[in-house]
Amino acid sequence: MAQVTVSLDANLAIDAMMLSGTRSPQDAVELILRDFLERGRRTGTRTGTRTGDAADGQRVTPDRPTVQEG
Questions:
Q1: Which run of H or of E encompasses 14?
Q2: Cα three-residue angle 57-63-64, rounded to 5 degrees
Q3: pTM above 0.70, yes or no
């Protein structure tokens, strides 16, 4: 697999290490990116699936009138 070198701010690398629980900045960034990508795939799958039908739009009520204060 090809590798890419990326420069990060030291504080950002330390935060990534603490968040991921690793001792290596490279491992930390890799774990966080893998998690980010996996979440994106799950979210994309969830939002890509549409439920309901055309009649659903008719069930939506118009804005409710505001309550008059007296």
A1: helix 10-20
A2: 125
A3: no
CB 28 within 8 A of CB 20: yes
d(CA 65, CA 70): 15
**Residue 32 domain boundaries:** 10-48
Average pLDDT of span 13-28: 93
Residue 67 resides in a domain: no
Judge whether 29 lies within some domain. yes
pLDDT tens sequence across 41-66: 876 665 555 555 655 555 555 666 66
Is 64 a member of any domain?
no
Between CA 20 and CA 9 the distance in angstroms is 17
22 Cβ contact partners less than 8 Å away, ≥ 6 residues apart = 28, 31
C-beta neighbour count of 22 within 10 angstroms: 16
